[in-house]
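sry for the spam today, last one i promise. struct tokens for design, 151 residues
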């Protein structure tokens, strides 16, 4: 009887952890959708809202952006280039305690101001999330393109 109880308790703990991890992944997927909507609406505030105050964004070919305010200005500059649509495809969310790692791919369509032909780009990304005070926030975000550099 005692052994059955111990096995049952272990199974319940493992199931609880799996359910909690699923909740984290669901939350991160919702934030990805909110970020995509921010791109489409040209709303840098909405895009920056997923980041912690001390987050670091590491885009390609430029120095890292330190802090939510700098990240917001970076996204604002991108949005000023024209009308954009972003598709984030999450491949995996790994959770360990108060840290989650999101790995995925992205596809961007940008219609530059004054242009009639859109520019398409695609690549991959990795975001480290931390649970701070019950709220998941992106603390490190790095991405790069799959396309060859322009010459």
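last one done:
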């Amino acid at each position: 009887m005692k052994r059955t109880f111990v096995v049952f308790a272990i199974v319940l703990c493992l199931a609880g952890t799996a359910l909690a991890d699923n909740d984290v992944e669901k939350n991160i997927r919702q934030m990805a959708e909110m970020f995509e909507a921010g791109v489409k609406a040209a709303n840098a505030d909405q895009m920056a809202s997923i980041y912690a105050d001390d987050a670091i964004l590491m885009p390609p070919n430029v120095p890292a952006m330190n802090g939510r305010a700098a990240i917001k200005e970076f996204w604002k500059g991108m949005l000023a280039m024209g009308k954009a649509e972003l598709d984030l495809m999450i491949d995996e969310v790994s959770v360990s305690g108060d840290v989650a790692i999101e790995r995925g791919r992205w596809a961007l369509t940008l219609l530059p101001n004054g242009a009639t032909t859109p520019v398409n780009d695609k690549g991959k990304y990795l975001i480290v999330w931390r649970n701070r005070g019950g709220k998941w926030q992106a603390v490190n975000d790095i991405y790069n393109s799959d396309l060859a550099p322009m010459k």
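Helices lie at 2-40, 44-48, 68-79. ok im logging off now
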